[in-house]
Design a protein that fits this description.
single chain; disordered N terminus; alpha+beta; five-stranded antiparallel sheet; 11 helices; 362 residues
């Protein structure tokens, strides 16, 4: 890896924390963990302009603060020891011990609850906050309750921890295996976020590339996007584990490569081919390694014709697979606005290609 790779990683973080955030929030619930325990809310957390907003009373009280709500001015005053936090609905100014702090998103009302930015609240009450874009999990660690730890390691080690959210692991099929969780996060991030994001951000370029029939270049580009997804997964894990990143680029990239190898994040891509589907339709067909995980694809298709434009399709193991045992997978499409299921079909290359051919003529 080199400096160019680092620049690509940084651009990817801009994608994930920026324009695509509203779409992702709609696809998956946001969870908030405080010292490892999930917080329950009567109004769901929301992602607004890259900031996670949560009901004020629950987050303040969970962090050990006493609150006072002034209905007339719609102002909350939270007190914890000598620390006083004051926030007002529709105001971007938060007072922290009389010091003014400008918020990126002002508190607002939803169903009678005041939603406040989780990071600003937690950090104001001396807690550390981490955001995992792929899993949509906010992790808050209260410094006064955190156990004493030794100096963080400077080199990655194979993860032996259990999955951070056992219910999620059971739901999506990767059980209680921490390494499988990392692999799942990388696969989901690649298939559902980063690859479609890259395709539609550079739509005209992708169309020209498909028309060029340069299969080898297309294959290299898709593999590079996979490794960006793997890098993001590793960087998120480094942050959660407290692993410090070396200042030197060469050491930093070596650390990433070592973690990718240790955590089984080498590419799951089996093949990348260009198919002529007839009717002036071209498709890039990506075949990936099989897993037992739901919402993970075994085939991805990027298709184009003049009538339908550029489309992105996946063939994913569905939740119903475990219930019905019918072996059918979900044929889905992803656009910049949403993700939709189209039909249940057989899990094989020809059935997938046939489904794409039909979708590109409707």
């Amino acid at each position: 890896m080199n400096t160019k790779k680092l620049f690509a990683i940084l651009l990817t973080f801009v994608f994930l924390f920026g324009a695509f955030s509203a779409t992702i929030t709609a696809q998956s619930d946001i969870k908030v963990l405080l010292n490892g325990e999930e917080l329950a809310f009567d109004v769901s957390p929301q992602l607004v302009d890259g900031r996670t907003m949560v009901p004020m009373r629950r987050i303040f009280e969970a962090l050990g603060a006493e609150i006072n709500w002034d209905e007339d001015t719609q102002t909350v005053t939270a007190t914890k020891g000598d620390t006083v936090v004051i926030m007002q609905v529709n105001s971007k100014i938060m007072l922290l011990d009389d010091k003014e702090i400008e918020l990126d998103v002002a508190p607002f009302l939803v169903d009678g609850r005041t939603l406040v930015p989780a990071r600003a609240v937690a950090e104001g009450l001396d807690a550390d906050v981490f955001w995992d874009e792929i899993t949509r999990i906010v992790t808050i660690e209260s410094k006064e309750e955190a156990p004493q730890t030794t100096t963080p390691p400077t080199t990655p080690v194979p993860s032996s921890r259990p999955v951070r959210d056992p219910s999620r692991g059971a739901l999506y099929g990767y059980g209680n295996d921490g390494i499988a969780e990392l692999q799942y996060n990388a696969r989901y991030g690649f298939e559902q976020i980063l690859l479609p994001q890259s395709i539609f951000e550079e739509e005209e370029y992708v169309i020209d590339l498909m028309l060029s029939l340069d299969a080898e270049f297309i294959k290299e580009a898709i593999f590079s996007i996979w490794y960006e997804a793997a890098d993001i997964t590793v960087l998120n894990e480094f942050e959660l584990l407290g692993i410090e990143e070396p200042e030197e680029d060469e050491e930093f990239f070596a650390l990433l490569d070592e973690a990718i190898a240790n955590w089984g994040l080498d590419s799951p891509i089996i093949s990348v081919d260009i198919e002529d589907l007839g009717g002036d339709t071209l498709a890039i067909i990506i075949n990936l390694k099989s897993t037992n995980w739901t919402l993970i694809s075994e085939y991805i298709g990027i298709a184009y014709n003049e009538n339908m434009g550029l489309r992105y399709f996946t063939l994913e193991r569905s939740f119903n697979f475990f219930d019905d045992g019918d072996g059918l997978f979900m044929f889905c499409t992803i656009t910049p606005e949403r993700r939709s299921s189209i039909a249940a079909i057989e899990n094989n290359r020809q059935a997938f290609i046939n489904a794409i051919r039909v979708a590109m003529t409707q």
